[in-house]
Amino acid sequence: MNKTVIIAALTIAACGLSSTVRAAPAVSYNPVNGGIWFHNDTGAPLANVSILSLSGNLKSASFALNIAGATKDDSELPFALTYLGLPVGQSFAGYVVQPNTNCFSMSFEYRTASLIGPPIRGTMCMPEPSSWAMIAAPAVAFLGAARRARGWRRDV
């Protein structure tokens, strides 16, 4: 019984920690249509966030949407698109990337509190693990430990 309680406590703790993993800003990119979504879960507006394309695959300024509470800086297109004061939450920037652009040719950077601080770089090619797999793995481990602790046996 003690092992089961310990495994249950560890499972609950792991689920609690997984909700805080995404506290850093992130960018989602859809290569089919070139859509960009910003995810700011820091709890405060970002000083700035920029999409960078070394190959110049960003579209013209007409494709970049205005985001409420943020100031759009499209002066460096087609190599960079910047938003100043990006609000908390999810924001859609528009279909600003040429469709079928490889995500490895792009990156993003952001500053949290001040425009004079060093930028923090991120990549746009982060595979997101399946939520169902993260739920199923501890559940299977918990059920397996409970079965073993109770001595369940299959009679054939």
Strand order of the largest sheet: 4-5-3-7-8
Characterize the main sheet. Answer: 5 strands, antiparallel
> How much of the residues is beta strand, in percent?
25-35%
Low-pLDDT residue spans: 18-22
What percentage of residues falls in helices of 4 or more residues? Answer: 10-25%
> Roughly what is the average pLDDT, rounded to an integer?
81
The backbone outline, from C-alpha atoms, is: elongated
Q: How large is the count of helical segments?
A: 2
Distance between the termini: 27 Å
* Secondary-structure-derived class: alpha+beta
Q: Quick one: how many beta strands?
A: 8
Radius of gyration: 22 Å
Order of helices and strands: HEEEEEEEEH
What report would you give on this structure?
- This protein is an alpha+beta fold.
- Helix content is 24%, strand content 29%.
- It has 2 helices and 8 strands; from the N terminus they run αββββββββα.
- Strands 4-5-3-7-8 form a 5-stranded antiparallel beta sheet, with no helix packed on it. Strands 1-2-6 form a 3-stranded antiparallel beta sheet, with no helix packed on it.
- A hairpin with an 8-residue loop joins β7 and β8.
- α1 packs antiparallel against α2.
- The longest helix has 20 residues.
